Amino acid sequence: DVSVFAVRGKYDFLVSLENPNLRHFNAFQYCLENAAGEQIVCGNSFILPNSQKYLLLIGQEFDKAPGNLRFVATGLSWQRLNAHDVPDWASYASTRLNFQLEGVKYSAPESGHKNPFHSLQFSIKNNSPYNFSSVPVNIILWNGDRIVGANYYHLDNLLSAEKRNVVLSWPSAGEKVTRVEVVPDLNILDNNIYLPYRGEIGS
Questions:
Q1: Given pLDDT bands bounded at 50, 70 and 90, which one contains residue 111?
Q2: What residues pair up with 188 in beta bridges, in sequence order?
Q3: Distance between the two ends of the chain, CA-based, in angstroms?
Q4: How far, in Å, CA of 139 to CA of 18, rounded?
Q5: Most buried pick, 43, 83, 92, 198, via CB within 10 A?
Q6: In what order do the strands lie in the sheet with 179-184?
């Protein structure tokens, strides 16, 4: 299912994906299609072995409200983990996706405000031994057990053992939020996300 959130004339889309396969991952293209089969927005994404993730498209603009959308994956490219490079996926993943989130604090918009904004602050620490060129973070807004909104943020050049404090605000559609989920969405099987260690540049 495709969740659609309208925010001040723009639209955010969320799709929940799951890959139960323990040794295969996928880099793929996708489109969101309407009931007439028209592709209204397309993109690229990935999913790691034995994982769940949210695929987000934020701030899309259309002449009219999109409805009855379906997610269509194209160009599927299932690849098996190299047993020599990744003998133990659980250990490999936990070492690289070792981020510590603290102080997640959400502030709801003021009641009756003409232009309401969500406010969020948190700290994230890279407890892995790796330096990352970019760490995308998905932000999921919940009301009880229902997702009511989403956003994303990119942390550039997050080094090993580095801690960042993040303060964000973005437009609200007036939805009630009882919980915020902050989830790094990092393709650790893409070598391009890793920054070289000192001494490795140009080697």
A1: confident
A2: none
A3: 46
A4: 18
A5: 92
A6: 146-158, 132-143, 179-184
Three-state DSSP class for 91?
A: helix
Pick from 171, 168, 66: which is nearest to 120 by CA? 168
For 71-96, b where at least 16 C-beta lie within 10 A, e where not — what string?
Answer: eeeeeeeeeebeeeebeebeebbeeb
DSSP string, 143-199: ETTEEEEEEEEEEEEE-TT-EEEEEEEEE--S---SEEEEEE---TT-GGGBPPPTT
- Three-state DSSP state, 40: strand
Q: How far apart are CA 101 and CA 186, in angstroms?
A: 15
pTM for this entry = 0.92
Spacing of C-alpha 45 from chain mean position: 10
Copy the structure tokens of residue 20. 């139960």
Q: Which residues pair with 18 in a beta bridge?
A: 52
CA distances from 102 to 53, 93, 133, 157 (A): 21, 21, 22, 19
